């Protein structure tokens, strides 16, 4: 489709609201990650794909001449995604802070350079009516965006519908950002279908995350009430193990068993050593007694 020749005020207003939401949506998640010092349940692949998705998304928005807020949106979205990705690599994958920082900075600069190069390369042909490259980038952006929201569903599946590690303020603001950005496209003079698909994908898949957590809360209401009445943390209850990551819990259990076995072995060795000393003392006393009698 042809680039937007004029942008209605209502589109700019909606686009601005969407951009504000997508400019701050990951801040609560980043703060939550930093405060918890762990990112269990928040997949690194999700943030990586979000950051990568911003390249074709940005190219598509700029060349299509979307309203200015929607052109800025992918750039801020990418920056916050890279920061969150770095946190996941530090907290859950054991990367050193400087390693994650340098790696992410290099990837971000490279992505920005590729996006700028593609915009300069494709804008001329698009203005002359060659639209298929931009359509292709729109399709790629939609596919990457959809793919990025699938890893959380794997984490949810491992925990029988339970959502952990994802900050609800973040996901709510992100959903609103997609909604208002979609409305900005709706009130433009010409609706862009591929741009709309980008936001609809987010709306549908993130709504699924809300529904999954709601169903899990309903399903476990009695168990959670029992834990609260017993003043016991829900995750410490034996019945709650099925709602945890079996792989990680198994590793924790094996590590605890190994530690316990090592402590037991050391204690046994110390007990054996003490027994040997006592035996030697007893022998010395017996010998001393015999010598005295002689």
């Amino acid at each position: 489709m042809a680039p937007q020749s004029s942008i209605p005020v209502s589109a700019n207003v909606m686009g601005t609201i969407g951009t504000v939401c997508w400019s701050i949506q990951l801040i609560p998640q980043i703060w939550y990650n930093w405060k918890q010092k762990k990112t269990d349940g928040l997949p690194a692949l999700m943030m990586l794909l979000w950051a990568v998705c911003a390249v074709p998304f940005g190219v598509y928005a700029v060349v299509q001449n979307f309203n200015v807020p929607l052109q800025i949106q992918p750039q801020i979205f990418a920056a916050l995604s890279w920061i969150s990705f770095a946190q996941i690599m530090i907290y859950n994958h054991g990367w050193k802070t400087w390693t994650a920082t340098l790696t992410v900075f290099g990837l971000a600069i490279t992505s920005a350079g590729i996006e700028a190069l593609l915009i300069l390369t494709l804008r001329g042909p698009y203005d002359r009516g060659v639209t298929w490259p931009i359509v292709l980038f729109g399709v790629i952006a939609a596919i990457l965006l959809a793919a990025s929201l699938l890893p959380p569903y794997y984490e949810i599946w491992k925990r029988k519908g339970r959502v952990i590690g994802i900050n609800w303020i973040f996901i709510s603001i992100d959903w609103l950002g997609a909604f208002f950005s979609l409305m900005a496209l709706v009130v433009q003079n010409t609706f862009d279908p591929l741009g709309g698909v980008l936001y609809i994908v987010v709306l549908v898949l993130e709504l699924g995350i809300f529904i999954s957590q709601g169903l899990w809360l309903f399903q476990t209401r009695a168990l959670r009430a029992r834990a609260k009445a017993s003043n016991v943390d829900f995750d410490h209850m034996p019945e709650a193990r099925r709602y945890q990551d079996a792989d990680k819990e198994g590793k924790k259990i094996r590590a605890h068993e190994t530690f316990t076995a090592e402590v037991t072995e050391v204690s046994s060795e110390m007990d054996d050593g003490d027994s040997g000393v006592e035996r030697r003392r007893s022998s010395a006393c017996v010998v001393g007694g015999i010598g005295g009698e002689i």
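Residues 246-293 form the longest helix (48 residues). The mean pLDDT is 83.
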